[in-house]
């Protein structure tokens, strides 16, 4: 995927987002660039990152958000959901902090065990992004 195509895809995804988030949280590292573009498109000033490590069938939160997300509308973002383990862990953490969480990504793999609230399409294979 080239940058121009990626930016076009992000524009399509931004138009699918329903509601106005207060905060965008990136699932690091894949969600960093998508989160920034969605923040610009949705006029969201607060962006945070969460690092979640994947250990096969389990995930572990490696970082936390120091600011309160209680009662905030949070959009949790990544580029591609492969299994969904990391996204599910991050969503659970944010909800436990009192946030109202919606999830977004460009693509999910067909066998992913997690369906985001907003996405473009399901793929049968992993695609490389411009920053990879």
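Sequence proposed for the structure above (132 residues):
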């Amino acid at each position: 995927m080239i940058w121009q195509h990626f930016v076009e895809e992000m524009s399509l995804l931004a138009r699918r987002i329903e509601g106005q988030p207060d905060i965008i949280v990136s699932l690091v590292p894949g969600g960093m660039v998508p989160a920034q573009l969605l923040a610009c498109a949705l006029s969201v000033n607060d962006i945070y990152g969460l690092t979640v490590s994947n250990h096969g069938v389990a995930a572990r939160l490696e970082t936390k958000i120091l600011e309160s997300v209680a009662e905030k509308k949070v959009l949790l973002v990544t580029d591609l959901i492969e299994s969904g383990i990391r996204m599910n862990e991050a969503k659970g953490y944010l909800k436990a902090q009192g946030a109202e969480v919606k999830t977004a990504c460009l693509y999910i793999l067909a066998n992913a065990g997690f369906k985001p609230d907003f996405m473009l399409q399901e793929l049968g294979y992993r695609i490389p992004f411009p920053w990879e």
